[in-house]
Amino acid sequence: MTSNSEQLAVQERVALPTETMTIMMGPVHPAMHGTVRVVVTVDGERIVHADVQVGYLHRGFEKECESVTWGQVFPYTDRLNYVSPILNNVGYAMAVEKLLDLEVPERAEYIRVISGELSRIGDHLTCIAAIAMEMGAFSIFLYCVRARDIVYDRLEELTGARVTHAFCRVGGVKDDIPEGWLEKVRGGFDEITGVIDDIDGLLTKNRIFLDRTQGVGVVSMADAISSGFTGPVGRASGIDYDVRKDHAYGVYDRLDFDVPVMDAGDTFCRYYVRMEEVRQSLRIIDQAIDQIEPGPVKAEGAHRVVLPTKNETYNTIEGMIRHFKLVVDGIQVPEGEAYTYVEGGNGELGFYCVSDGSGVPVKVRCRPPCFIVTGQLGNMLVGHTLADVVPIFGSLNMIGGECDR
Amino acid sequence: MGIELYGVDSLQKILGWARKYSMFKQPFVTACCGMEYMSTMGPRYDLSRFGCEFVQFTPRHTDLLFVVGTISERQAPVLRRIYDQMADPKFVVAFGVCASSGGFYQNYAVVPGIDQIIPVDVYIPGCPPRPEQVIDGIVRLQEIIQAGETHSQRELRQLAEAKG
Amino acid sequence: MSKAALEPVKKKFASEVISEHAQHGDETLVMKKAKIQAICEFCRDDPAVAMDMLSDLTAVDYLMQGRETRFEVVYHLYSTTRRHRLRIKLPVGEDGAEVASVTGVWKSANWMEREVWDMYGITFEGHPDLRRILLYEEFVGHPLRKDYPIAKRQPLTRREDPVEGIWEQKHILTGPSAGAHFRGSYDIE
């Protein structure tokens, strides 16, 4: 039995012919992260078609990599997923180490894990900040930025830079941990956990937040697998795949943590999976701090790969020649190709490197999880209202640097 | 626009004071510098202490265009359009080396500095610049505004003088 | 990567296999491009292979290596159920740079094929919407090809000074690049 207003609506639709309207949510938009244009065709409030145009931050990452040496690529990888730069560094370093069949010392692996997980915490905090701010909850943004500044402080003490670290090297990491750094990292846990608990209390059971995110942007598991979703977006749709658990690299097989998987596949799940992952990352860092042992931080004896120390460079002729050759000619990576994958902030971050035996790569391809996830945004938006564009897009955590490279 | 012609010192001083301490900002955020932009607006390196708090995403209501991050060739017409939509006097800050000069992306895809497209008042170098550098840049911009030496203010003065 | 993924594909499409290798543990099959759609459907549907996810689709330009076929389209396949991977490479020549699209097999291929078209100029037959994705429509050429010079700009916008004579545009050109890794010159004009 249709109600009076429904009958009226049907009558109106029959009597009044309607047209769709095309609206451009252009690259300059508070919630488009500055680099995506979504051209939506709406019928009233309902979206009937959405054309997502990316590429406004295409900076020629692959082309640049083909004209610099293997070691000079690291700053470019930083700027891929610039909210979690260490993870990109680690992925690329692992790809080159695979081509070289080079083993990384254990202490360097632990440092990569600790700094990588700190970066991941920064990534998820930024995503949660963006989701909340774009829906009007500005204080959450300020809490997250406060917690993220702590992460940046620690990473600055370790690497020298707050955002774009260029920390990893082929064969290890740039430098050892400064004195007292591990205790300081532990000291920051309370504040980060406090912020996550605050946000949990403010958003997870909030009627307004739930109404705007539950059931919105649902992606079924089959669609998610076919679309190549991995990472928090894939796990929110039920795909139980985390590179750190299923294809453990580095020292992740010695660390005990859970992987949050939810099955509704909507925006709320994508947000909640990230909250849980922050807690799990803190757990991982805690265990890594307990397990780390003193040792070298760069592969020893790898004279053709690792730069010599300053002492050697200035005082021995072999050191000087090695330094010169490695900087000017680059690491001579044997011919071949390799694909390595790490768990980036948004999913399986893969690096496919092709070498022809020289010091300059033939190809450095980054498999960008953000690009693949944004590819389905057009399909995800159909049927929703215009107001749903913002939460759906925010929950995908599209980072322009990785999407457009 | 006639006000520019008066040249009365105290009037200019008051105008400069009003303009520099209440800037309405349009953050044209594209890339990694956005992270430091968020930190600068955050609670620790509070930019609102300097009057620069209010953020608008429509250029018609703003007077400061804060170009944060790399501008690719595809984004360039968009940037030009946003700049054209702002009302005079308007100020432009190039935040980061990519906006200042293209940074280390000297290739087919990146505009080597936004001054290829729009006139820039303050360049803040850094990749990305620390929040303290950003605050330094904003304070420098405030000094220029007070002195009436931004590109836009100079242009308005010249136009007013040309009109007689 | 695993042999369990490679063997069934090799057996079923033995006529299409050009070579195989397992460098650094990554099982790779180099195959002829003609039946790629059938190969991909088999990889997805066969229960032993079960490649339900197309992890990556890209191309490599081997112009400098002087190969017979200039490009190679590379597919990285992954199975979420069996947790194994396979890499399939298709040599694609410069003339006739077309490959059948696999958007019907995996949805993720849609944007990845558009990117390969944009960057390399390899067309994908059967793709629902093959247009540029990372670059603008007015761009001429395919930049990731090795013969596209990296610093060749195609600007879309210039600055026109509203009032003449306020400032001159100074173009600072540095000298020709000396040395392999330092590019100092770019042409503004």
In short:
The complex is a heterotrimer of chains A (405), B (164) and C (189). Chain A has 405 residues and is mainly alpha-helical.
Describe this structure in words.
The complex is a heterotrimer of chains A (405), B (164) and C (189). Chain A is mainly α. Chain A contains 18 helices and eight strands. In chain A, the strands form three sheets. Chain A has a three-stranded antiparallel β-sheet with strand order 1-2-3. A three-stranded antiparallel β-sheet of chain A has the order 6-7-8. In chain A, a hairpin with a 2-residue loop joins strand 4 (168-169) and strand 5 (172-173). Chain B is built from seven helices and four strands. Chain B has a four-stranded parallel β-sheet. In chain B, helix 2 runs antiparallel to helix 6 and helix 3 (33-41) packs across helix 6 (131-147). The relative contact order of chain B is 0.18. Chain C is an alpha/beta fold and 189 residues long. In chain C, 17% of the residues lie in helices and 21% in strands. Chain C contains three helices and seven strands. Chain C is globular. Chains A and C meet through helix 2, helix 9, strand 6, strand 7 and strand 8 of A and strand 3, strand 4 and helix 3 of C.
